Amino acid sequence: MEFSPTTQTVLDILWYTVPFVIIAGVLFESKFRSGFSKAAFTLSKRLLNKKTYHLISNVILPTEDGGTTRIDHLIVSPYGVFVVDTRNMKGGIYGSAEQPDWLQRRRRYVNRFENPLFQNREHVKTLQTLLGLSEGQVHSLVVFLGEGRFRTEMPGNVVRGWGYLGAVKARRQPVLSAEQVDEVVEMVGSGRLKEVLRTQLDHVRNVRGIV
Predict the structure, then answer these.
(1) Fewer CB atoms inside 10 A, N or C side of the chain?
(2) Which controlled-vocabulary keywords does the entry list (predicted)?
(3) What does each of the 211 residues of the chain score in pLDDT, given as a tens digit?
(4) What's the number of domains the chain is made of?
């Protein structure tokens, strides 16, 4: 079949460009999946009522030894402060709530990593101390994003993907007043936590000096 010069030119262009469009689409999808953690929690601002839930990402907390520790996300609401640790992993995940180390296995690749529940407990304790909140007002939540699958029973306070929205919305008993919610958001956002820690450490030193 013969085509007009114009039609033949269009076909020639498509012949060379379509494969590149397909390859670009595959690469974009791969990049999107690898960045799913940030995308998921950015979109969650729209899925959670912004008047009720306040999302604060990449929270740097001071530690008593003068260092810092990072929390992936905080969700502050009348139903408590959710301390969210996110993991973007592939392959099979093995671990229980009380095991100090968990295992990631993908074909021949084996990775042993610290139980994220243990790490998040320390974040929860630090926040309770700095914000003056009780145990029932701060909740730990570990979220696995990506293609990873638990090959053992999934521990409590651990969810996959968008399941974190259900875990957050499942708490319906208010534990913080509107004033407390505003104060937590302001303290975390303004960096006042470092000042609070310094005041507490000075108080401890003074008490020790008196003793």
Answers:
(1) N
(2) Membrane, Transmembrane, Transmembrane helix
(3) 554 555 555 445 444 444 443 433 433 333 434 444 556 656 666 788 989 999 988 888 877 777 788 899 999 999 999 999 999 889 999 999 999 999 999 988 999 999 999 999 999 998 998 899 999 999 999 999 888 899 999 999 999 888 889 999 999 999 999 999 999 999 887 766 666 666 555 434 443 444 4
(4) 2
The CATH number of residue 171's host domain is 3.40.1350
The span from the first CA to the last CA of the chain, in angstroms, equals 100
Query: Looking at the structure, do residues 30 and 131 belong to the same domain, yes or no?
Result: no
59 in the same domain as 15: no
Say whether both 3 and 83 belong to one domain.
Answer: no
| Cβ atoms 57, 41 nearer than 8 A | yes
Residues 110 and 104: beta-carbon distance below 8 Å: yes
Put simply, whether the predicted model's pTM sits higher than 0.70 gets the answer yes
Range of the domain at 3: 1-34
Distances (CA, A) of 110 to 85, 94, 107, 114, 188: 21, 11, 8, 14, 37
Is 107 within a domain?
no
136 in a structural domain:
yes
Q: Looking at the DSSP assignment, which residues form a beta bridge with residue 71?
A: 59
Report d(CA 124, CA 138) in Å as an integer. 7
CA-CA distance, 4 to 10, in Å (whole number)? Answer: 10
| Alpha-carbon dihedral 50, 192, 157, 164, rounded to 10 degrees | 20
